[in-house]
């Protein structure tokens, strides 16, 4: 029994030793392979940075407004007896657009006007009689009061008739009418929208830190979603004198010529305030910037001489991870404020497999159209 236990113990020790020996041999072979394997080299596309002019802008958003705009209504109640405009058509200042029935007022006006000559003649006659002391001062005053009262009645009736008419307060374009012939209107009922669209306005806000950069007459570029391929020019016409103490923003107004009538009120717009050109700036494509927990980075290529495993001197290109400070972004371009300089060769694509000091080689842009495979080891 003891003999069999000894044999089993020896077998177990032998098996355990074999496993340990195999693992040690495996680790040695892996270490040897890793030590002798070639260093991975990844393909990238690159460009050489150069200094260029940069036109900085201040970006803002807002809504397009007309130069003038009003929803027309009537002051008095009444029945519509004439509509003299067409929906969506231009109108001139003081053009009659709508009138309410004024038959009674016009009849009363004619009656008062018919009485006016007699009242005037009586007043003139009483003036002459008073000069000769033929009548009393009281009689003269009564004749004058009757004449003046009739004049006032005529003016009042004329004003009432005018108030029963709706005229265009300025030249512009009317919208869709909301009323119909024969309809009874209450005071304040919306009739139609009138807007002067010859010049449109854009109101937007900018941070108070940018106040010193904004001036009257400054050029702005405006884009609207309705015309993505068109950029409209405008200029700043007014700046609010006070900063909103809650938001820290200041309101700005710009005028935009609208001769073609493309812009309409209510459109959402993006504005770029054009600032003075800055020379010798570094501008790179957005694709060159990588984002990490430590900020924005660019891979700069550095060529150096190294010794290979055979002891030979070879030139090697490595990607150095550089932290940059990015400024304004415009389209595909980024204005770089610090971190790289003119003449640096930077990686444009292929960064996903890179880390600091990775060995790379530069290829043409087309070579990375289909993602390259990780080099075989």
TrEMBL record:
* Domain annotation CusB-like beta-barrel: ranges: 203-273
InterPro entries, alphabetically?
Beta-barrel_RND_2, MdtA-like_BSH, MdtA-like_C, MdtA-like_HH, RND_pump_MFP
Q: Where is this protein localized, as stated in its record?
A: Cell envelope
Note one Pfam family from the annotation.
RND-MFP_C
Q: Which parts of the sequence belong to the Multidrug resistance protein MdtA-like barrel-sandwich hybrid domain?
A: 70-189
The family database entries (Gene3D superfamilies) matched by this protein are listed as: 2.40.30.170, 2.40.420.20, 2.40.50.100, Helix hairpin bin (1.10.287.470)
Residue ranges of every copy of the Multidrug resistance protein MdtA-like alpha-helical hairpin domain listed in the record: 105-161
Per the record, GO CC terms? efflux pump complex
Q: Which GO terms label this protein's molecular function in UniProt? A: efflux transmembrane transporter activity
* Family annotation (SUPFAM superfamilies): HlyD-like secretion proteins (SSF111369)
Keyword annotations from UniProtKB, A to Z: Coiled coil, Transport
**Location of the Multidrug resistance protein MdtA-like C-terminal permuted SH3 domain:** 282-350
**Coiled-coil features, chain-numbered ranges:** 133-167
Q: Which NCBIfam families match?
A: RND_mfp
According to its UniProt record, which protein family does this protein belong to?
A: Belongs to the membrane fusion protein (MFP) (TC 8.A.1) family.
Question: What name does UniProt use for this protein?
Answer: Efflux transporter periplasmic adaptor subunit
